[in-house]
Sequence to fold (342 residues):
Amino acid sequence: MQAHDNPFATDRVERLLTFNPAWADTSWPSIETRWQKLGRRATLTGRHGSGKTTFLDAWKKRLHQDGHESLDLFLNRENSTLDPKSWQALAHCIGKTIILDGEEQLSWIARRKFYALTRDAHALLVTRHRASKLPCLLHLDPAISLLDRCVQALAPDHYDALRTHFPSWWHQTRGNIRESLLLCYDAVGDMHP
Amino acid sequence: MSDSLHIQVDYDHTEFTPGDTISGTVSWLPTPSTTGISLRLFWFTSGRGTQDIEVISELEWAVTPGSSTSRHETFSFILPNEPYSFSGQIVSLAWALEAVQEPEETSSRYPFTLTPNGEKITLTPVDNPITGKKKIAMWANARNQLYNN
Fold:
């Protein structure tokens, strides 16, 4: 099977699997009420591949639809520092919503600088694997049933052939939805070489 | 996809080569909230990894809010030398024209290929020079071990 035909191609997964608050037993009004209650400064927590970035994509879309301007920053192991341009943007962030995906990648000094610069921002949402000094807006802890639902939505024709692997893949990836869907990609590719 | 937004190219084929001109017409029927139409020439990858996208050229037409008259505009782009379209098991690269209606973000897409001679490029497994085995097979074996652990 060619990559663009694979139902688990990353771009297709990102396009079709937009965040649904019901996955975390909540709703958008409930999340937004808590967001306001926390003074629009909060953390989104969850393990690797639990849906944090997927949540942020949906959250940003809602912010932009409401006319808010956001400054989006992304860090991971390969790219663990903010570049000078990002620091410069943070120095002029009054009135903006700052979204930092991967806050725990920042060094202690960089983190201090980050929080000092964002003190006057309109809002601040960061993602981490564990709780931090900011209160938690939402903790994502998906169960294997979510993988089941995702596969049914993405590839109903392959669901029966894949479902038997779910428990071992879930265990192997330590409950990482993203990695589990990549194993689905590989398996479907192997089924149709 | 949108019924009110359409890309019509001046050709009856979808295979192009570097330096070719791709031209045609974008037509649309605006909704009351439509403020503009943009047309992008771009390539994108699809597959197992993070998606790469590059917009090569973009045209924009402003629409008077409240206008309800259908409209069409012509376009013409000269295609660059690279990257070539290709298709493999791990990743594919495709070219397309995409018209987007703002702010609704409804869109219409015209996919095409860009290759040196207009023929499709398909990536196939290659022999490992040391073992003689297919590289993709080695990769698959490693993955199978991962499955079975």
User: Anything to note?
Assistant: Chain B has two domains: 5-118, 123-149. The first helix of chain B runs from residue 135 to 148. The longest strand of chain B covers residues 36-47.
